[in-house]
Amino acid sequence: MKKFKSTLLPFFCFTSITFGVTMIAQAQASNTSIETQSLRCSALNQIHSTLTDPSPQLGEIMGELAGLFAQIHATQKGRSTKTKINTAELRSKRDELITEMSKGWPANKPAMIREAAVCDTWRAEFFSKLPERPSEKDLLSAMNNISSPPTTIQKTEIDRWTKLTPQAFEAWSRIKSVVKEKK
Question: What is the C-alpha separation between 155 and 170, in angstroms, rounded?
Fold first, then answer.
């Protein structure tokens, strides 16, 4: 029995250490995917904030969601780096993403439609875990404990964004061209 214990002890120690390192790496990867996707969702919702159809309030709501995802990004990034995220830096990073997404349009159309569906599914999941009238403490807790972005998306969700996303990118490019002309 003593020989049995002594031969298996190094195996169990190695397995425990490997399991612990794997769990830490998975948690870090999860945080990174949350940070990355929340910033991408902020950028994509900012593009969708140009929409006024099917209702004038849609653009306003999308702008608010862009802000929510920016807050999620700042909260998660702040947690992982132990620093407060500068608003100007956050806007700059989001603007870079918007530029990248816009330059790829319309070649990246299927990817942008799918990503819009991912963001909306993730938003719905986030709000489903909050009380009907969340306090600031509830929101902060939810932002700190948000689940990873979804990897599977319902076809109906993708279908919903198939019309809205192209409209948003077209409106965004018109707005940007007007801004360039004024400069």
Answer: 23
pTM, 2 dp: 0.81
Specify if 59 maps to a domain. Answer: yes
Question: Considering the domain boundaries, does residue 22 fall inside one?
Answer: no
By C-alpha distance, which of 154, 176, 147, 169 is closest to 44? 169
Query: How far from chain centre, in Å, is Cα 111?
Result: 15
How many domains are there within the chain?
1
The answer to whether the beta carbons of residues 147 and 125 sit under 8 Å apart is yes
Residue 130 belongs to a domain: yes
Domain extent at residue 82: 35-177
pLDDT digits (tens, 9 = 90+) for 104-161: 999 999 999 999 999 999 999 999 999 999 999 999 999 999 999 999 999 999 999 9
State residue 91 phi and psi, 5-degree precision: -60, -40
